[in-house]
Amino acid sequence: MYGTKIGGTIFDRDEHRHTAADLLQYSNPDGLRVLLHATVGRILFRQTGAARPVAHGVVFHDAAGVRHRAYLNDGAKNEIVVCAGAVGSPQLLMLSGVGPRDHLESLGIEVVVDQPMVGQSMSDNPMNAIFVPSPTPVEVSLIQVVGITRFGSFIEGASGSNFASHYSQITRELRFGMFSAQVPT
């Protein structure tokens, strides 16, 4: 919504950082298996006996490139969470047969769900930064949205000491921050 101010944080009011991994403390570790360096290539869907397809497993490759299948347990408290990012998630859905019918069929992928909007309206996330130096130290903050233009662009703000270049008295070298217009030589 034009002009809206939104924001969020992964820090609580006591300045403790939280991640999705914190949810593991509420899980049953006996029913949880985490595989590192596993890459999912396709979601498996069951289409019989349901009004619509239901995800019931995944096909993945391990670190050695060996292909495996993993299936959900029976019951309502099982799920597959797609979290492959803005580009990877629609790619995974389309490789699994969920996406625009014409596109999937042109690639020889069996259509599970004709969903024309999967993978559409994708755009890059360009950023232009303006650095305003402060003569005194400022409180460090996370990047957060402070406004939305009528064109749908987000205006973000952040503060802190690591956004521009500065000279380190300790190492006696110039350090470059994430918004520095300079590059090391």
UniProtKB/TrEMBL annotation:
<dbReference type="InterPro" id="IPR000172">
    <property type="entry name" value="GMC_OxRdtase_N"/>
</dbReference>
<dbReference type="InterPro" id="IPR051871">
    <property type="entry name" value="GMC_Oxidoreductase-Related"/>
</dbReference>
<protein>
    <submittedName>
        <fullName>GMC oxidoreductase</fullName>
    </submittedName>
</protein>
<feature type="domain" description="Glucose-methanol-choline oxidoreductase N-terminal">
    <location>
        <begin position="85"/>
        <end position="99"/>
    </location>
</feature>
<dbReference type="Pfam" id="PF00732">
    <property type="entry name" value="GMC_oxred_N"/>
</dbReference>
<dbReference type="InterPro" id="IPR036188">
    <property type="entry name" value="FAD/NAD-bd_sf"/>
</dbReference>
<dbReference type="GO" id="GO:0050660">
    <property type="term" value="F:flavin adenine dinucleotide binding"/>
</dbReference>
<dbReference type="GO" id="GO:0016614">
    <property type="term" value="F:oxidoreductase activity, acting on CH-OH group of donors"/>
</dbReference>
